[in-house]
Write a structure and sequence with these properties.
By secondary structure, the protein is of the alpha/beta class. Helices cover 38% and strands 15% of the residues. It has a single domain, classed as TIM Barrel (Alpha-Beta Barrel). The N and C termini lie close together (11 Å).
């Protein structure tokens, strides 16, 4: 392993590192969009070589922009994992075309399959299971699917986790039929105890897919609350609301120190804990998130095959 393409920022704070958090951050991933990636002059100045970078596909983003971003990141030495939101993919031919473009122009071999945030499907697909059933992802190395630590009202309107759990059982069975490494990439949450309880419950239900836990990166509190409400974050939203009531903290940027320290401590005490990786949502900006990760020990290189 090497850091040939990685330069630690000169202004990175020289603060004591929590070793458990540093260990938990190894092989972390981060999410970008084409329009946010355009604002970054050089990803190699921010992210260690080999970092997995998800590319979020928001409804209305041209596939040409998605593929161009994937091509750039791949050329810079990153593991590229574009989103495939089922509800914005019109048909099998469109899906096959997207895959061919990603593979032909950017060498993509990883994908995050999810339903997507639009209410009405644009065509024949409305969930990630239908995408998997096409067989078009047969030569991918990594296939990730969505996880919901606090449930999903779109899937379970009654507030239960019945449909979500049934879907995860289906995906667990599917993982036995593919050579690709499968994992759950989750929505972000802000409180460790419910996350731990959810992960343990999945294992008890026989769902053993590794979990890449979604974590919101450093951001203004108002920004996080806005995104959390828009994304349907559940009970852990109260962590932010409580912070907003404290005038001494209201103007300070939120950092994920507390939730990650608790999760890292649990992982250290329980090495077989099924949360294996951290996935960052850089809601306060890619540079701010990358600098925070570096300052907290997430600056080690990782194998290119990840």
């Amino acid at each position: 392993m090497s850091l040939l393409s990685f330069r630690k920022p000169k202004d990175a704070p020289d603060t004591p590192v929590n070793r458990q958090v540093a260990a938990f951050l190894q092989d972390y991933s981060i999410e970008v969009m084409p329009r946010t990636a355009e604002k970054v002059d050089d990803f190699r100045a921010l992210l260690p070589e080999g970092t997995r970078v998800y590319i979020a596909h928001i409804d209305g983003t041209p596939i040409t922009d998605m593929v161009a971003t994937a091509k750039r990141l791949s050329a810079d030495g990153y593991q590229v994992m574009p989103h495939f939101p089922a509800r914005i993919i019109k048909n099998r031919a469109t899906l096959a075309d997207w895959i061919a473009r990603y593979q032909g122009e950017a060498g993509v071999k990883q994908a995050l399959l999810l339903a997507g945030g639009v209410a009405q499907p644009h065509g024949q697909f409305h969930n990630s299971m239908q995408l998997l059933e096409t067989g078009l992802f047969g030569d991918f190395d990594h296939l990730h699917v969505a996880g919901h630590p606090e449930g999903n009202r779109d899937i379970d309107p009654d507030g239960s986790d019945t449909n979500v759990t049934d879907a995860l059982r289906w995906k667990q069975r599917f993982s036995d039929t593919t050579d690709a490494q499968m994992a759950l990439a989750t929505q972000f949450a802000f409180e460790a105890a419910p996350i731990i309880a959810w992960a343990d419950a999945l294992k008890d239900a026989g769902i053993t897919l590794p979990i890449h836990i979604g974590i919101a990166g450093p951001a203004k509190l108002q920004t996080l609350i806005k995104f959390a409400i828009a994304c349907g974050v559940g009970p852990s939203l109260k962590v932010l609301q409580k912070r907003a009531m404290d005038v001494t903290k209201l103007l300070l940027p939120y950092e994920p120190t507390e939730v990650l320290a608790a999760l890292a401590a649990h992982k250290a005490a329980n090495p077989d804990f099924n949360i294996t990786n951290v996935h960052f949502f850089p809601l306060g900006g890619i540079k701010a998130n990358a600098d925070w990760a570096i300052a907290n020990g997430g600056d080690a290189a990782r194998p290119a095959a990840g």
